[in-house]
Each structure stands twice: as structure tokens, then as C-alpha cells.
Amino acid sequence: MTHRFIFPLRSALLPLVAALAIAGCASAPTQAPEPLTPPSQFKEQAPGAPRWVAAAPAEAQARGAWWLVFGDPSLTALVERAGEHNTSIQEAAARLAQAHALLRQADADRLPQVGLNASSSRQAGANTVGGTSPAALHTAGASVSYELDLFGRLAGASTAAALDAQARDALLQSTRLAVQTDTAQTYLALRALDAEIALVRGTVDAYQDTLRLTERRFQAGDIAELDVERVRTEVASTEADAFALDRRRAALEHALAALVGDAASSFSVPVTTWTTALPTIPAGVPATVLTRRPDVSAAQSSLMAAQARLGVVRTAWFPDIALTANGGYASTDIGDLLKWSSRAWGVSALLSLPIFDGGRRDAAVQGARAQLDAAGASYRGQVLVAFREVEDQLSSLRLLHDQAEAQARAVRSAQSATAMSDTRYRNGYVSQLDLLDARRSELSNRRQALQVRASQYDATVGLIRSLGGDWGPLPAIPTSYALTGHRRN
């Protein structure tokens, strides 16, 4: 005779729960990574080095809407349009939604799982009701299962998923900033080309005036035909330069269309006068850059997620315990299935602890540790890149300011030389070669000045991007065509 001893489930589990809770202390907690120690100030703003002085703003700008400091309605419209319709931003937003869905899945594993089930089967064997004769069994009921997270495996997985979502959120912000700055830089480059095209075509008109004068003097027998051909060469060569600039403008316009999410065939930017303001951006201190840059924040969240996953894989050395309960009805006659006499229920606890797995758990821990090391290196590298990019743009702005001043002096001298050469040529005091050289020098210097100015805009937007799209509560005042800040030691 076989005797069955039934103990209360709670009493049977208490020693096991106590033992597992003590062992659970071995799980590794998730800790925030130690940030790199940032320098106290940027090299370009070191004592004794030239500094940019930001004037007080004329009016407060919206925080984060950095493009407003340029005072260009067309630029504002394009940047905001890109923020809404750019496909890269939409892709990053979809990946963020996917990360949030994975987080909800990880959180759901920590909750009790409830389900309904029903079955109907016909089977034969020694364990069936009818012996070896086929018998039917119909069941209907509900089941509840819950995994005890004594070692933090489920909590660690949820933490890692939450950090992944934070990283994706930061990457979305980083993508949005990248698209916005790319849009601004492309637009400003296009406006610079518009100004350069106008300059070159204006020079063509001046050459044509010179050509008409030269042809009249040739017809009068004052000069040789060689002088006429020289001017015609300059006219044709300068026209060719204008067409080359038109080709570059078309390519920039098409790139701008892709950035704002439009087809290049139906997108255009009208040619207007370049009146975009050129602001002065305060860089602040290096420590604030780490808090503002979304890519650094994403790298930090990824590092913390890798650390959380290392803690999760370490819990594989501890047992898993799950509690299940089910209740419902079971009957060999489907007509009696829902009768009170057909009720059935059961509770169980399942303990699982792998003993030999061929080194699988060791490999998982080693892989998670390698991922943590890679994430740490990536985080440190991202911080160093952030500092480098700010220094690059600060040095570019400082040197471009000096270059712009020198180039402005060159332009003034070239304009004066052209005016004097034109007057003296018309009066017959200098040769045609002197006039052509003067015009060629003026055109070259004025184009170089426009290119330096375009580089100043590009570096300013680049600095904004390097700072994370925001530089604190004091936006800089916009100025027209040149920086208003003066250098001081």
C-alpha cells in the first residue's frame, strides 16, 4: 500500500526561498560608469589665447531652436521641415518605438502569466480510464504561472532594456540634430554659391563692357586684333566658371530636397540676396558638452546596458524557480465537462539548475564582459571625439576670423587697382593686359572672400552641432555678414 504525504505548499517552499534569497546576494548590481575627467577649459579658450565675446541677445530664443539665431526665415522653414519629414529621423523614431516595445516585453516577463486553455483528446493505454480501450478526455480551465526573480535576472533584463530605450532616444535626438545641421549647412552653402554666381556673372558683364570698348578701338585702328581675342577669352572663361557654379548649385539643391524629405524634381530654392546673420556661439566649458551631446548620452546608456546584461548572464549559475497553478474541469463526457463534480485543480513549483552545459554559461559571461569592454571603449572614444570636434570648430572660427580680415583688405586693394586700371586704360595710359590682370585679381579675391565667409557659417553650424545643439540660456546675438565679437587676451 502506498501512502502519500501532502504538506502545505507554503511550508515546503520557505526553506528553499530562504536559501535562494541568500544566494541571490551574489548577483552583480548595475552601476553607472565613471565618466572621464574633462579638461577645465578648451584649448582655444585658454588664458592668453584669443576669445570670442558674445554680445547680449536682442531677444530670448527658444531653447534648442538654435537655427533661430541666424535670423533667416527660409532657413528656419527648411530646418523645421527636415525635422518633420526626413527619412533618417523617421527611421530613428521607429527604432526607438521598437526599443520601447522590447522594454514592455521585458517588464511583462516579471508579471504573472494568466491563460485559458481547453483540450479534447482520445487515447488508449494502461493509464487511461478505460484501460487499453480508447477513451476520451475533455478539459477546460485557466492557468497562472509566475517566475520568482530571486537573483535579479528578470529585473536586470528589464533594466538593460530600459537603458537601450534611453540610448535609442538619445540616438533619435542625435539623428535629428545631425539632419538639422546638415540642412543648415547645405542651405548656407547654397546661399554662398548664389552670391558667388552673382559675382561671377557681374564680372562677365564687366568683361563684356570691356570687350565692346576694345572692339570699337580695334575698328578705329587703335589696337591690334590680339587684344580683342584676349578679352573674348576672358569673357568665355568667366562664363564657363558661372556654368560650373550653376551645376554645383543644382547638386546642393537636390541634396537639400532629400534632407527635407521631398523629391528633387519638385523642389527648388529661389535665388535671393544672402542676408543670413552670422552669430557668435559661446562654447562654455568642456564638462557641459558631455551633458548636452545626445551621442555621448547614447554611448553612456549603451555602456550601462552592457553592464546590466553582464549581471543577467551571471545569474545563469543560479537556479530558476517558477510557481504554476491551474484549475478548471476535466471529464470523459463532454456533456459533464462543466459540472461541479468534474472540477480539477493543481499547483506546482519547478526548480531548474543546469549542472553541465559544456561551458555555455562561461562563454556567455565572457561574451557579455567583452561587450561591456567594447561599450566602455566606445563611450570613452565618443567623449574624446566630442572634445575634438569642439576644438576643431573653435580653432576654425578663430582662424577664419583672421583670414576674413586679411581677405577683406585684399579685396579693397584689388577693387582700387581695378578702378584705377580701368580709368587709365580708357585714357590709353596702360595696356589691356594690365586691366585684365586687375579684373582677374579682383574676381579671385572677391570669390575667396565669399568662400571664407561661407566657411565661417559652416564652422558656426558645426560648433552648434559639436555643442549638442544648445549652448545654455544665453543665445548669441545675430550679426550681418561679419562677427561682432572682438578678440581680447
UniProtKB/TrEMBL annotation:
Keywords: Lipoprotein, Membrane, Palmitate, Signal, Transmembrane, Transmembrane beta strand. It is found in: Cell membrane. GO terms for cellular component: plasma membrane. Gene3D superfamilies: Outer membrane efflux proteins (OEP). The keyword Membrane applies. Its main location: membrane. Residues 1-28 form the signal peptide. It comes from the Bacteria. Pfam families: OEP (PF02321). It is a lipid-anchor. Coiled coil: none annotated. GO terms for molecular function: efflux transmembrane transporter activity. Belongs to the outer membrane factor (OMF) (TC 1.B.17) family. This is Efflux transporter outer membrane subunit. It comes from Simplicispira hankyongi. The lineage of its organism: Bacteria, Pseudomonadati, Pseudomonadota, Betaproteobacteria, Burkholderiales.
